[in-house]
Each structure stands twice: as C-alpha cells, then as structure tokens.
Write a structure and sequence with these properties.
Blueprint: E1 5-13, H1 17-35, E2 38-43, H2 48-54, H3 60-68, E3 71-76, H4 92-99, E4 104-110, E5 125-131, H5 159-180, E6 185-190, H6 196-210, E7 216-221, H7 222-231, E8 238-241, H8 243-256, E9 264-268, E10 273-277, H9 294-311, H10 314-333, H11 346-358
Parallel strand pairs: 1-2, 1-3, 3-10, 5-8, 6-7, 6-8
Antiparallel strand pairs: 4-5, 4-9, 9-10
Bound molecules: adenosine-5'-triphosphate.
Pfam families: Iso_dh (PF00180)
EC number: 1.1.1.85
InterPro entries: ICDH/IPMDH (IPR050501), IsoPropMal-DH-like_dom (IPR024084)
C-alpha cells in the first residue's frame, strides 16, 4: 500500500560520501515533488570519522533506527588511514548488510550516451545481481587453526537463500521490462560443470524459472559468461550469480559502461533496502567539489523503484523514471565531472539535473 510519507535514513559517511549524498538528496526532492510524494529524511552519522572520534563506527540506537526506515541512502564509508586494531578498514555498511540479512546486491549497468567507454557496445542495459551472504564467503567467520601449509575457504549454497535470490531476479526482470523497456530475461552464471555446490545452484534456478514461464532464461558457465560482458554485453538483461562471481562480474560490468562514477547499487532483502554508489569514499578528491554525483543520484532512483515495488506505489516509479531521464540528458549534453572527461563540478552537474527535472 502506498504511504503518505516515506521515512528515508541518510548515511552520508566519509570522504566524498556527504558531497554525493547532498547532491542526490537535492535531485530526489525535485523528483518526488513532481509526483506529490512526501519524504521524511533523517541523517545518521556512521563510518571512519565517527570511529576516530568515539571508537565506534555506528551507534547501536542508530543502527536500529536505520532498520525501521522505509529505505536507506548511503554515501561511502571507510578511509584508508583509519583502521581497527586487526588492520581492517571501518565498514559499518557491511555490518548493516549482515544485521538486516541483505542477501542480494543489485548492480545496474547502463551505457549512457556521452559517457566514454573502451568497449565497442551500443545498447547496454543490464542488472547484475550478486548473492552476498553465502557462496564463497559462507565460511568467513569459521574458526580456523593457524596453518602455514594449506588454508581452505568454504563455498556453501543453500536452497532457502538461492530461492529468494532467484525470485528477486525474476521480479526484477519483469519490473525492468515494464519500466525500462528491457526484454525481461535472466542469465545464471555458474561453474556447475565442476563444482557440486554450483550444480545445486543451477538445479534450484531451474525450479524457480519454471514458476516464471513469461521470463526467458539462459545458463552460462562463469568463464564464458565473463568474456561476454566484454565481447557481447548487449546480450544481458538480468544476470544472477554466486557471491564472488558476482563481486567480480559486477565490476567488469561497471567498467563496460564507463566506470564507478556512474554505477549505482542496492543491497536488499525482502524487507530492507540500502542504496549506495558502487564507488568508495575517494579521499583523494574529497572536499574538492569534483566528485561525480551520478552514481548516488541513480542509486536514489533505484531506491524509489524499490519503494514502488514494496508499496505498490506507481508515483515512485514515475519519479524514478524522471530522475533517470534527467540524469541521462545531462550525461549526454554536459556538464560532466572530470572522471568523465568534463570540466563540471558536483554542484554544476547537480544543478543541471535539478533544472532538467523541473522542466
Ligand atoms: P573502496 O574499497 O572503498 O570501494 P576504492 O579504494 O576501491 O574504495 P574509490 O574510493 O572508489 O576506491 O576510488 C577509486 C578511484 O576512483 C579514486 O581515484 C577516486 O578518486 C575515483 N572515484 C571514485 N568515486 C568517484 C566519483 N564519484 N567521482 C569521481 N571519481 C571517483
């Protein structure tokens, strides 16, 4: 059921995070105003900066409050200079992923006219869906005795997570067909010719596919499928795969469409959704006003599409479509930020998108 007001938690984070979230909020507000949607935005502090000052990366009360929001928009978290005693970076976004069971990472990769790419491709519009809680990461908390001769990692595929993952993939294929004009097709990437766990993954995929006869499917081995991101990316619509295969192929897909500055993402469960750019906190350009806001703006559009699905609210789809159109127009005509070869700033790009949305 559509809501009168959506509660959105903002987690700007570190580095360029606050700059790109501010930009995305301006665009989001302009987009929802067109449709008469009310947003209640609340900002929470989390990340390396907070850890430096307080010794914790996110307050427990805030982590709970974020879980009660209708959706979350996150900037970027972590700084290479701020580390925990074990040497790892501060990453409360990973804690949130685990805490709220966000098992699917959605990484749409669309080639926009005006964005330089090194790949010979014309119409690329794909969505890579990576499982994020099991697969080859399943055993990362397993206890292990120190061993200097051999070390193993565990790859586990469960039916319950795989069924949920594939349901998300088929729903996304249908939603994209309705709102993006994509064919409504799902490709599974696996290594079912060698790994038993992956043969099981394919079996569950086949079962779920039978429940969605209106969506065409393909199954490819991960090696051949990876090559096709470069040689024939147009063949893909929705691509779904195991954790580490998805980690790698989603970055290849982002590279095909012009890099991290234009690559949005969303981590979702059946109930919760956190949307964020695929890039990190980019401390090398933080505070200079040149961060590309497009990945975060497109993440905000994804957030609206997810809210549309969760609450059966067509207004959110309309607002998301308007934001994507306005962003595509500015990518084509400029201004563009320096990472895309332009001379624009975060502010000039954002101003241009907001103006395009108001017209
Ligand atoms: P993480 O491990 O947190 O994902 P990373 O170390 O891989 O981060 P990023 O912080 O994403 O790296 O930055 C990689 C490079 O891309 C840097 O040179 C950075 O300046 C650039 N970059 C990242 N995001 C943007 C952006 N939005 N606009 C312009 N340049 C960016």
């Amino acid at each position: 059921m559509s809501k009168s007001t959506y509660q959105i938690a903002l987690l700007p984070g570190d580095g360029i995070g606050p700059e790109v979230v501010d930009a995305a909020v301006r665009v989001l507000q302009a987009g929802v105003a067109r449709e008469g949607i009310e947003l209640e935005l609340k900002t929470y502090e989390a990340g390396a900066g907070l850890y430096q000052r307080t010794g914790e990366s996110m307050a427990e009360a805030d982590a709970q409050a974020v879980g009660r929001a209708d959706a979350v928009l996150l900037g970027a978290m972590g700084l290479p200079t701020v580390r925990k005693a074990d040497g790892t970076e501060i990453a409360p976004q990973i804690d949130l992923r685990e805490r709220y069971g966000l098992f699917a990472s959605l990484r749409p990769c669309e080639l926009f006219p005006g964005v330089p790419t090194r790949v010979k491709a014309e119409k690329v519009n794909m969505l890579v869906i990576r499982e994020t809680t099991e697969g080859l990461f399943a055993g990362r908390h397993d206890k292990q005795e120190p061993n200097d001769e051999a070390v193993s990692d565990r790859l586990t595929i469960t039916r319950v997570t795989s069924e949920k993952l594939f349901e998300v993939a088929f729903q996304q294929a249908k939603q994209r067909r309705a709102t993006h004009g994509t064919p409504g097709h799902v490709t599974l990437l696996d290594k079912s010719n060698v790994l038993r766990s992956n043969a099981f993954l394919r079996k569950v995929f086949d079962e779920v596919a039978e429940r969605h006869p209106d969506v065409e499917t393909a199954r490819l081995y991960i090696d051949a499928g990876s090559m096709m991101f470069v040689t024939n990316p147009e063949r893909y619509d929705v691509v779904v795969t195991e954790n580490v295969f998805g980690d790698i192929t989603s970055e290849i897909a982002a590279g095909v469409v012009g890099g991290l500055g234009v690559a949005p993402s969303g981590d979702v469960s059946l109930k919760h959704g956190i949307f964020q750019p695929s890039h990190g906190s980019a401390p090398d350009i933080a505070g200079k006003g040149v961060a590309n806001p497009v990945a975060t703006i497109l993440s905000a559009a994804m957030m609206l599409e997810w809210l549309a699905q969760q609450h059966d609210d067509a207004r959110c789809t309309e607002a998301a479509t308007a934001i994507r159109r306005a962003t595509a127009a500015i990518l084509q005509d400029g201004p563009r930020t320096p990472d895309l070869g332009g001379k624009g700033t975060t502010e000039s790009v954002t101003d241009a998108i907001v103006t395009a949305l108001k017209n």
